[in-house]
Design a protein that fits this description.
Residues 8-330 form the Enoyl reductase (ER) domain. InterPro entries: ADH-like_C, ADH-like_N, ER, GroES-like_sf, NAD(P)-bd_dom_sf, Zinc_ADH-like. GO terms for molecular function: oxidoreductase activity. Pfam families: ADH_N, ADH_zinc_N. There is one protein chain. By secondary structure, the protein is of the alpha/beta class. The protein folds into two domains: 2-138 and 301-331, Medium-chain alcohol dehydrogenases, catalytic domain (Quinone Oxidoreductase, Chain A, domain 1), CATH 3.90.180; 143-278, 3-Layer(aba) Sandwich (Rossmann fold), CATH 3.40.50. Helix content is 28%, strand content 26%. It contains ten helices and 17 strands. The strands form four sheets. Strands 3, 4, 5, 8, 9, 16 and 17 form a seven-stranded mixed β-sheet that branches. Strands 12-11-10-13-14-15 form a six-stranded parallel β-sheet, sandwiched between helices. A two-stranded antiparallel sheet has the order 1-2. Helix 3 (139-152) packs across helix 4 and helix 6 (214-222) packs parallel to helix 7. The two termini are 16 Å apart.
Length: 334
């Protein structure tokens, strides 16, 4: 089969012929029609990820058709259109993943290929209203957004929510899901264009995080502080989120692209009775509930740009440069 292979740190991905994987007992082989990028792929390529091994086929997100099944797998799955849950071996405790938890695309070869083999329980029927490309954008980003926003932060209809750094796939999916359940959504971004595009997706408004004293300005515009704040940056700007939060608010973060939080204003946390929540990926139940929400509300993920598989290196550079609004997709089969 054709696959994109990464041979080492800071190397470009190379499209080459590799052996087609065959399903082991309990697995299915998926003929991939589309895959989607995540920042995880860029971090692995740059050597900024734990457990590196080479060569590796990157890719955590994918959608396609079940082409073969291993021993012990229900043959009725053959021919089904599916999307893949990239998380496996979460463990027995829903509260946090166990030591054996893995994400597709490292250490197991991922979805930047014509075929991938995964455990049968990792596939879920593709929402019928979505194309393969649209469905491929959901797994990692949708799972991360759902668990952070609903399982961890327990967002409810009618609450005011702030999503920081809108433009990336997870943030936009959190925006769409929160709007769908009846929350009032506001956003921040360093780009006025991205704020405008978020408003077109249902946000009430937003502000540039480069604006001096933006929390005071935004909370005045929104009519109060935010019950839930969803963040992926952390870093020095995290204290601004404490100012933007309503008393009793929940701040959930699923990443730290701006690094650790220096000099946390602890007095604001306890005086405002705030909850700080970490979140990573999600359980099989989170994944199922996420897909159900997408189907129920007929949500269509935002796609930034679609590249052919052979141009994946250009796609990775677009993500690395932070130019995208929505998910970047690789078309594998038209």
């Amino acid at each position: 089969m054709q696959a994109l292979v990464l041979d080492g740190i800071n190397q470009p991905v190379q499209l080459r012929e590799v052996p087609t994987p065959q399903p082991a007992p309990g697995q299915v082989q998926v003929s991939l029609h589309a895959a989607a990028l995540n920042h995880r792929d860029v971090w692995i390529q740059k050597g900024q990820y734990a457990g590196l091994k080479f060569p590796i086929i990157l890719g955590s997100d994918g959608a396609g058709i079940v082409a073969a099944v291993g021993d012990g797998v229900d043959k009725s799955l053959l021919g089904q259109e599916v999307l893949i849950n990239p998380g496996r071996q979460w463990g027995s405790q829903p509260a946090a993943q166990g030591r054996d938890f893995q994400i597709l695309g490292l250490p197991q070869d991922g979805t930047f290929a014509e075929f991938v083999c995964v455990d049968a329980q990792q596939v879920r029927a593709k929402p019928a209203h979505l194309s393969f490309g649209q469905a491929a954008t959901l797994p990692l980003g949708g799972l991360t957004a759902y668990r952070a926003t609903f399982t961890r932060a327990q967002l409810q209809a009618g609450e005011r929510v702030l999503i920081s750094g809108v433009g990336g796939g997870v943030a936009l999916l959190a925006l769409q899901m929160a709007v769908a359940v009846g929350a009032e959504v506001w956003v921040t971004s360093g780009s006025e264009e991205k704020i405008s595009r978020a408003v077109a997706l249902g946000a009430k408004g937003g502000i540039s995080y480069k604006t001096e004293k933006w929390p005071a300005l935004l909370t005045k515009q929104a009519g109060g502080g935010f019950d839930v704040i969803v963040d992926s940056a952390a870093g020095p700007g995290f204290n601004d989120l404490l100012d933007a939060a309503a008393p009793g608010g929940r701040i959930v973060f699923y990443g730290a692209t701006h690094g650790d939080i220096p000099d946390l204003a602890a007095r604001k946390v306890f005086w405002k009775q705030l909850s700080l929540l970490g979140s990573t990926m999600g359980t099989d139940q989170d994944f199922a509930e996420m897909v159900d929400l997408v189907e129920q509300h007929q949500l269509v993920p935002a796609i930034d740009q679609t590249f052919p598989l052979a141009e994946a290196e250009a796609a990775l550079r677009r993500m690395d440069d932070g130019l995208q609004f929505g998910k970047i997709v690789l078309e594998i089969k038209s």
